[in-house]
Amino acid sequence: MSRSTSPDSPMLFEDAPLVPTFELELIARRAGHWPVAGADEAGRGPLAGPVVAAAVILDPEHIPNGLNDSKQLSATRREQLFAEILATATVSIASSSAARIDTTDIRKASLDAMRRAICGLAMPASYVLTDGLDVPAGLACPGKAVVKGDARSFSIAAASIVAKVTRDRMMARAGVVFPAYGFAAHAGYGTAQHRAGIEQHGPCPLHRMSFRPLRKEAV
């Protein structure tokens, strides 16, 4: 017996790529909230370096073309959009160090960096859209967590680009100070090159000692 699928079945769209828009921001605006900020972080997974968060309030009249999840963009395109975002939007950046990550945990450190980025906006946000499952506590405005938000919202996508480019630049500079690990090449992620550097030289002050396989060395 054959099985048919109706033309409007959700099954047909399960693998369709998400495309960010400005719709979530406009929904908040119609509800009386303006301006709306998007917030995201970069660097939850690496073995070294800070987690960096950004908050962005876009100008609806000057939204850069091509905003998307930073992971879907080339490094060159991220750098181009980074410059455009800083030239046209209100931006704030904050970070939590490896030491802070180790004394709390990566989730708390990420949310705290996001909170500080949002609170640091020169133009206070009336509403915040955050990427993921959580809205940071301690904000002066309401917010909404958006799963895969950097692929759904222009503002969150812009924040993801700012956070990613900022963190990559920080890790490139860290590679000059600590050349044994190749930070400029992998931004602190657990690549073979990075792990070999740790094996040969041990950890440096930028390493997250609460992360495996480094955790055993903190005992």
From TrEMBL:
Assigned keywords, A-Z: Cytoplasm, Endonuclease, Hydrolase, Manganese, Metal-binding, Nuclease
Species lineage: Bacteria, Pseudomonadati, Pseudomonadota, Alphaproteobacteria, Hyphomicrobiales
EC numbers, comma separated: 3.1.26.4
Enzyme class: hydrolase
Cofactor remark: Manganese or magnesium. Binds 1 divalent metal ion per monomer in the absence of substrate. May bind a second metal ion after substrate binding.
GO BP, one annotated term: mismatch repair
Function: Endonuclease that specifically degrades the RNA of RNA-DNA hybrids.
Superkingdom of the organism of origin: Bacteria
Cofactor requirements of the protein: Mg(2+); Mn(2+)
Signal peptide: none
Catalyzed chemical reaction(s): Endonucleolytic cleavage to 5'-phosphomonoester
Domain RNase H type-2 span(s) in chain numbering: 34-219
Protein name stated in the entry: Ribonuclease HII
Entry-linked InterPro entries: RNase_HII (IPR022898), RNase_HII/HIII (IPR001352), RNase_HII/HIII_dom (IPR024567), RNaseH-like_sf (IPR012337), RNaseH_sf (IPR036397)
HAMAP family: RNase_HII_B
Main location: cytoplasm
GO molecular function: manganese ion binding; RNA binding; RNA-DNA hybrid ribonuclease activity
